[in-house]
Specification:
This protein is of the alpha/beta class. The chain has four helices and 39 strands. It has a ten-stranded parallel sheet with strand order 8-11-14-17-20-25-28-31-34-37, with no helix packed on it. A nine-stranded parallel sheet has the order 9-12-15-18-23-26-29-32-35, with no helix packed on it. Strands 27-30-33-36-38-39 form a six-stranded mixed sheet, covered by helices on one side. Strand 38 (306-308) and strand 39 form a beta hairpin.
């Protein structure tokens, strides 16, 4: 159902500049939006797209001028407001009811051990498995192929997409989402090399995901050798990420695709690791650190640092190094010319 701009502005806490009777049906990007849709501008480098947009209205910060005919909603954080508009107009994804589900919402083709505890309103799809002694909270969705191991704990309102795995004794808080193919609690990469042979070290620890953690597709969070691997509340992962055994991440970290973190690393709160960043083991990354893509972190990093390069250095230095690297061929030619000149002299 659509909303008038007056109603939408009130819901978002935004200031309306335009016709409040205009009805907005849904949301879209600036270049994709059509009449009847709302878009947003949060980054000044996209200002030129305002002239091309066909959106009926745009969310911006105060001071931005919209073209004639485009209604405007202004607020301090248009990106967050756009997120709230999507929820108001289009809502979150609706999960399908399991096929051949009983009155509890559990498919006849699911396998739930009699000793497992299943909370009210939890829906379990065909070929999902819940092992002995495990606990699943209220309002969860377990998609086909998901597996919850013995004595594992899953909190309320969790979503386990197809083929996601929670190994034995691991713990998920409330509102945790595991996207397809993700594994929580696989064995850590632990071997003792003796006389040229690698001998497996039993991995007896667990993984703990605190409330509101979301893990993208095909990630692997290793169980600790002893103790726990822990991801703090509100932390979000993209896809294809590996976290080594015994590592801990503080609350509200953002980890982008293809990041690899070795074992026994301590990562603070609100840390951002760009895509393809690698982190060596047994180091500490302070609160608020930001690493750009393809950073190689081999030593501990002070809180608040913004870094890049491999090995990691302050971002300004990393940029200068990168720029210098693009000129290496010319520099090589200059050196060769100087060498030839020196030989003649």
């Amino acid at each position: 159902m659509g909303m008038t701009l007056t109603t939408l502005a009130s819901h978002l806490g935004a200031q309306l500049h335009g016709d409040g009777d205009v009805v907005i049906e849904q949301c879209a990007g600036l270049l994709l939006a059509k009449p009847g849709e709302l878009s947003f501008l949060a980054n000044a480098k996209y200002c030129n797209q305002l002239e091309a947009t066909k959106a009926s209205a745009v969310l911006t910060t105060p001071g931005v001028e919209c073209p004639c005919g485009v209604h405007q909603l202004t607020c301090d954080d248009p990106y967050f407001a756009f997120r709230n508009a999507i929820i108001a107009l289009q809502g979150f994804k609706q999960h399908p009811v399991p096929m051949d589900a009983d009155d509890r919402g559990i498919s006849a083709k699911a396998m739930v051990h009699p000793s497992a505890a299943i909370g009210e309103g939890t829906q379990i799809h065909p070929f999902a498995v819940v092992e002995a002694g495990s606990t699943v909270g209220k309002g969860c969705h377990l998609y086909p192929g998901s597996w919850i191991g013995p004595e594992a704990t899953v909190g309320d309102d969790c979503i386990l997409y197809p083929n996601s795995v929670v190994h034995d004794r691991c713990q998920l808080g409330n509102r945790v989402t595991l996207h397809a193919g993700t594994v929580i609690g696989n064995d850590g990469f632990g071997y003792a090399t003796h006389k040229g042979t690698h001998h497996k070290i039993p991995q007896h620890g667990i993984v703990v995901l605190e409330d509101d953690v979301e893990i993208g597709g095909n990630c692997a969070i290793e169980r600790a050798t002893m103790g726990e691997t822990r991801l703090g509340k509100g932390t979000k992962f993209a896809d294809l990420i590996s976290i080594g055994h015994g590592t801990s991440l503080g609350p509200h970290c953002l980890i982008v695709s293809l990041v690899g973190v070795a074992g026994s690393v301590k990562i603070g709160h609100h840390v951002v690791l760009g895509g393809q960043t690698g982190v060596a083991g047994h180091i500490e990354i302070g609160d608020g650190v930001q690493a750009i893509a393809q950073t190689g972190i081999a030593a501990s990093i002070e809180p608040g640092s913004i870094i890049g390069g491999a090995p990691a250095v302050p971002l300004d230095t990393a940029k200068r190094n990168l720029l210098a690297g693009t000129r290496l061929a010319d520099l090589f030619k200059r050196v060769k010319r100087l060498e030839r000149r020196a030989k003649k002299d």
